[in-house]
Fold this sequence. Notes:
The protein is mainly α. It folds into two domains: about 1-110, Hypothetical protein, domain 2 (Endonuclease III, domain 1, Orthogonal Bundle), CATH 1.10.340.30; about 120-180, no CATH class. Helix content is about 60%, strand content about 0%. α8 packs across α9. The longest helix has 19 residues, at about 55-70. The radius of gyration is 18 Å and the shape is globular.
Amino acid sequence: MASILFGARINEKIAIQTYKAFERHGIDSPDKVIAAGWDELVKILDEGGYVRYDFSTATKLLEIAHRIKDKYGTLDNIYEQSTSTEDLECRLIEFKGIGRVTVQIFLRELRDVWQINPEVSNSARIAAEHLGIDLSQFSSSGELLAKIEAALVKLFIRYCKRQRCDKCPLRIVCKAAGEG
């Protein structure tokens, strides 16, 4: 759920509020998405501030939930039927409306739950390079790497991508900040 909300081109605060609304309503599995139905999903999306994309996102969530249930039974079965991280990525990309960013977010967060080793996102790699961080030193801890990657992606989006080095809280240790 979170990876779908955060994978869309929408304000991060709205995605967070909307995810919390789904949590409050106990909608945290494909079965619960299906049981809630389209009207209820739209209400929850609106409650979280996801107003502009409420109809299309409700439709997308239902389509994905039905596809998971029909093709795999459960989300865990997608993982169990996959032969590798790459195979898992391919199975997830098959879902309508799920792209590389959504899959990266999803797999990043499950790095410590499932035995997978997805590529670190380009955004996180660039931010790590700017800060002189060797991400390979964290590869043995999926949970720690997931947290570091998420923080680096946020840093990249907020500062590096927008070339706002002068506003970045890490500018004094950033190799790129001195280049501008």
